[in-house]
Amino acid sequence: MRRNLYVGVVFLTLIVALWVSSNLIEKTGTLQGASVMAPRFEVDPLWPQPLPNHWLMGQTIGVSVDAQDHVWVIHRAGSLEPGEQHATTNPPTAMCCAPAPPILQFDQAGNLVGHWGGKAEGYDWPDSNHGVTVDYKGNVWIGGNGRGQPPGARGARGAPRGEQVLNENQTGGIQGYFNDAMILKFTQAGKFLMQIGKPGQSKGSNDTENLRLPAKTFVDKMTNEVYVADGYGNHRVIVYDADTGKYKRHWGAYGKRPEDVDLGRYDPNAPPPPQFRNPVHCVEMSVDRLLYVCDRVNDRVQVFKPDGTFVKEAFFNKQTLGSGSVWDIAFSKDAQQKYIYLADGENDRVHIIERESSRRRIKAWCGRRNKEVMNAG
To answer: Which CATH number does the domain housing residue 267 bear?
Structure first.
């Protein structure tokens, strides 16, 4: 459990560094060399501010920033230990503490300005929350990567259904039951708008009606399409209409038809894998309309046109084993999006990369203490 909590803290550090820092780039210094200007960042050790009501956050598993520069966080309450939830017992064991609601909205100063989420009638909340995206209309999308239990099966001891705790080191399997086969769309106030997919109904990577442990979404404002990194169980990117949920298209690595075959363990010395491994962990579109996809355990980013045509790929820390080096990306906020900020969760650092050349400029280490975050050439 302590390992899970540490992984959650590291993940929060990495993705907050991606999203918050990229939105504050104009306020940072720069390293200048010839015509290259690479950003520098400093961690804010006091962000966010303490939560009200003796609330605590569990594993933080997604961050997004809206048009007002508010930071949205999704976390897993089920990762908190019993001793951290004494206020929830009947009668209360102690004043502190209780899990915060799964969706939290902060202003730039780190003040909590909104909160909601969890199981309710009318939709299927994930067994294990994963990823949050605020789209260009202000709607909030979430996914999940909980395998869960088949209906009627006896639940495992520990976290209740709806708060399953997963170790992010898992790379997913392709056999068995998969509860979280859906993505959900809400207003910023938490009103349910749409669900794509049904729990436990996935038929694999070429099922167009269901997902299988989707990790993250991106909504294209030009076409109003939602792209899904799908995911911990499937091996693809899939695209739907963001209003109706109508299926549009999908593809696997190199733009080919995805296959649910066991590629075995990742071998950095082997030829590039012909398929995505689990998880397909992120999907983001640049200003020049190129779609970047995180193939996490394969230590690579693949780039596509919006129609799924393969453009190029790049490997980062290719010798990384375990849960892989390519967890998430964000783009710098200059007009050309010159840099990619790449969260490397296995090596606990953020890489700053020239987007055009895929050449790494700076490594930012993220250690157990905030002061271990630094820049290096």
So the answer is: 2.120.10.30
